[in-house]
Design a protein that fits this description.
Blueprint: E1 15-21, H1 24-40, H2 45-66, E2 69-77, E3 81-89, H3 97-104, E4 113-117, E5 124-130, H4 140-152, H5 158-263, H6 270-300, E6 309-311, H7 313-326, E7 333-337, E8 346-348, H8 350-366, E9 371-380, E10 384-391, H9 428-438, E11 442-448, E12 452-460
Parallel strand pairs: 7-9
Antiparallel strand pairs: 1-2, 2-3, 3-5, 4-5, 6-8, 9-10, 10-12, 11-12
The structure holds adenosine-5'-diphosphate (ADP).
Residues 363-364, 367, 391, 393-394, 396, 404, 410-411, 414, 424-429, 453 line the site of adenosine-5'-diphosphate.
Length: 470
């Protein structure tokens, strides 16, 4: 640092002002000049007061501790421009520097940096107040102008400084009061918001708790209902199996006896012959129902174990065609069996699959007056096979399309074509769907009244894994 060379002798082009503190009134002058310099370089009112107060304290302490100081104001820029004030001790020889350091400590809070340099450096206090972000360092020409202006201004007396200090104090007090009022208001708002948030939180958590309780209760009820449903379904299956099993023997005997009577030696009146035939037909119908029921009960109880093997669909189709043509076809309905081209052999149970398809084809023929019944197959996505039975028959109304898979359900008014007496049992489709599920697949229907129906059996190509009995 340049040594003091007397007023108006400047060592550095960025130096703004230099002063000496030798007596009490110099402290006032430094304070006042400090504020002026801070104002003129562009620091705001608050910063001006901070710089002035810091300087006044530093000046006072140095006057007491080191017999005075030379104070130099300049501008520095170490990346962030700042006003720097250095106060160099006049006579540090007898000073208690530790004491000085502790007395300076509270002053440091007023500025960005305050350092007390001690021997071997010259003893001096350096204060830095940085310019607010965005404020640029003053150009050199402007520094020279400021320096000239400061030098030409006559320093005010201690009373003027005291008045200015009072004025600043009042302004600062007012500002502090305003900030306190604002803080109080903000606190009030915050408290209110907090109360609102807490109330909302409380309401939400109690609603959530209530909803949770409801959901838990609902699940418990649901579990109970499913258990009841399972039990009911098992009981029904048991009943069907037992009842049909018990019925089969007497019904078979009735059929046997009726046939015996019909072919017996004794003369029969035409009426008697007709009645015996009626008994035979009814008992045969009954036996069909009993057999169907027994099949269904077996499928439902999971007692049917598929025998998995590699099956070529073409063979299943050929066998079906043979069986169905054996039943005698009506001339105005064509049975078309497409070659399952491109469908690789699948892992399935051929007997069960044949039963499903026979059921569907028989139904299709039963409910088709003219046109065609077509059996075809495609392979989808390389891992699923879809076998379709499509007819041009009476169709099934939309709202009945799920019901036909319920036991004993038959579409009201839908009579099998050309077989006025044959009503069926309403057990074929539920059974077919059960078997499709056992084979790891499913059975679905698409239909339009008057246009026909398509039943599709979807099967996995490879997995022989059987799905749970639903
Ligand atoms: P069933 O044929 O012994 O009556 P199903 O369970 O096989 O019993 O069929 C149930 C009902 O579904 C039939 O009675 C009939 O009303 C309807 N249905 C089945 N297949 C067809 C079809 N291809 N076209 C029209 N209706 C059908």
């Amino acid at each position: 640092m340049s040594p003091y060379r007397g007023p108006g002798v400047l060592a550095d082009p960025d130096e703004l002002l230099r002063m000496r503190i030798r007596a009490e009134h110099d402290v006032f002058a430094v304070r006042q000049r400090g504020r002026e310099v801070a104002a003129v370089v562009g620091l705001d009112r608050q910063d001006q007061v901070r710089v002035a107060t810091a300087l006044s304290e530093v000046g006072r302490l140095m006057l007491m501790g080191t017999g005075g100081a030379t104070v130099i104001f300049d501008l520095v820029d170490d990346g962030a421009p700042a006003l720097r004030v250095r106060a160099e001790a006049t006579d540090p020889s007898g000073a208690d520097l530790d004491d000085l350091a502790s007395l300076m400590a509270p002053v440091a809070r007023l500025v960005d940096e305050l350092t007390l340099q001690t021997p071997p450096d010259p003893v001096r206090v350096v204060i830095l107040r940085r310019f607010p972000p965005g404020m640029r360092r003053l150009p050199r020409g402007r520094v020279a102008e400021i320096r000239a202006a400061l030098e030409s201004r006559a320093p005010a007396g201690p009373l003027d400084e005291l008045a200015a200090q009072n004025e600043q104090l009042l302004a600062t007090l007012e500002q502090v009061q305003q900030q306190r009022d604002e803080l109080l208001r903000l606190n009030g708002e915050l408290e209110e918001t907090n109360r609102g948030v807490m109330a909302l939180y409380g309401q939400l958590s109690s609603e959530l708790e209530e909803t949770n309780r409801g959901v838990v209760a609902l699940y418990a009820e649901l579990d109970e209902r499913s258990a009841q449903l399972r039990e009911a379904s098992e009981a029904k299956t048991r009943f069907l199996a037992n009842a049909s099993h018990e019925l089969r023997a007497p019904v078979t005997s009735i059929i046997g006896l009726a046939r015996l009577l019909g072919t017996g030696d004794g003369p029969l009146t035409p009426d008697q012959a007709e009645q015996i035939e009626l008994i035979d037909n009814s008992a045969t119908d009954l036996l069909r129902v009993v057999n169907d029921l027994l099949d269904l009960a077996k499928a439902e109880s999971g007692r049917i174990e598929p025998q998995w093997e590699k099956v070529a669909l073409a063979e299943v189709f050929a066998q079906l065609r043979a069986v169905i043509s054996g039943l005698g076809q009506r001339p105005d309905v064509d049975l078309v069996v497409d070659d399952p081209v491109g469908v690789p052999p699948l892992l399935t149970d051929p007997v069960l699959l044949t039963q499903v398809l026979r059921n569907l084809v028989t139904n299709a023929l039963k409910f088709t007056e003219h046109g065609a019944v077509r059996l075809s197959a495609t392979c989808r996505d390389g891992d699923r096979v879809t076998v379709s039975v499509q007819d041009t028959g009476i169709g099934i109304p939309e709202d009945q399309q799920q019901r036909i898979f319920e036991e004993f359900y038959q579409v009201p008014g839908a009579r099998p074509v050309g077989q006025p007496g044959a009503r069926g049992t309403g057990l074929g489709l539920p059974y077919a769907r059960r078997l499709a599920l056992l084979l790891g697949g499913d059975l679905r229907v698409r239909s339009r009244v008057g246009q026909g129906s398509t039943f599709t059996v979807e099967l996995p190509l490879r997995t022989g894994s059987r799905q749970g009995v639903r």
